[in-house]
């Protein structure tokens, strides 16, 4: 259980922060950038939820919880030492990816196939979900970059990859099941 009695500690005043294993690293380290971006994504999802109702709101709530799991996963390096720890760190698991796939498939059944790219926007919820999609893609790129330097849980990368797809399909659902999508017209303004 996390207990936060004091919010500021002053331990980061010199530009370092503690990872989940206690190691101190620069605040600009790739690992911190990756999990910081997943935290940013969680905030953007919170904005989208201001416009969501019903199933989409419930699914976004699950995603927000997953994003905290993702941050917990990314903030503890040295995965090979997980079995030796007194308290094994929280890691993303395949079921979280599978749940997103099931939800994508269910939403996609309601949609007509695309014949063009979509311009982000439409309803307020759709615009926010497109914003979530682009931040998720950035979080994925940064996590993949981290994985070129250090061990990263492959389920974390898969989750982020699937999540951006989820946001894309959900944005279409939020645009009257795609009927209110604005399609890209190549070269329209030449």
Shape type = elongated
User: How is the largest sheet built, in terms of strand order?
Assistant: 1-2
What's the SSE pattern? EEHHHEHHE
Average pLDDT taken over every residue: 92
How many helices in DSSP terms?
5
Structural class, please? mainly alpha
CATH superfamily of the domain at 26-76 and 91-110 and 120-180: Cobalamin adenosyltransferase-like
The percent range for helix content is 40-55%
- What's the CATH C level of the domain at 26-76 and 91-110 and 120-180? Mainly Alpha
Radius of gyration: 19 Å
Q: Key terms for this structure?
A:
corrinoid adenosyltransferase activity, two-stranded antiparallel sheet, mainly alpha, 190 residues, Hypothetical Protein Ta1238, Chain: A
Q: Layout of helices and strands, plus pairs?
A:
Layout: E1 16-18, E2 24-26, H1 30-49, H2 54-74, H3 94-108, E3 118-119, H4 124-147, H5 154-174, E4 182-183
Antiparallel strand pairs: 1-2, 3-4
Organism: Mesobacterium hydrothermale
Protein name: Corrinoid adenosyltransferase
Family: Belongs to the Cob(I)alamin adenosyltransferase family.
Structural notes for this entry:
It is an enzyme of class 2 (transferase). Pathway: Cofactor biosynthesis; adenosylcobalamin biosynthesis; adenosylcobalamin from cob(II)yrinate a,c-diamide: step 2/7. This is Corrinoid adenosyltransferase. Pfam families: Cob_adeno_trans. With 190 residues, the protein is mostly helical. The chain has a domain at 26-76 and 91-110 and 120-180: Cobalamin adenosyltransferase-like (Hypothetical Protein Ta1238, Chain: A, Up-down Bundle). The protein has 5 helices and 4 strands; from the N terminus they run E-E-H-H-H-E-H-H-E. The strands form 2 sheets. Strands 1-2 form a two-stranded antiparallel sheet. The chain has a two-stranded antiparallel sheet with strand order 3-4. Strand 1 and strand 2 (24-26) form a beta hairpin. Helix 4 (124-147) packs antiparallel against helix 5 (154-174). It is elongated. The mean pLDDT is 92.
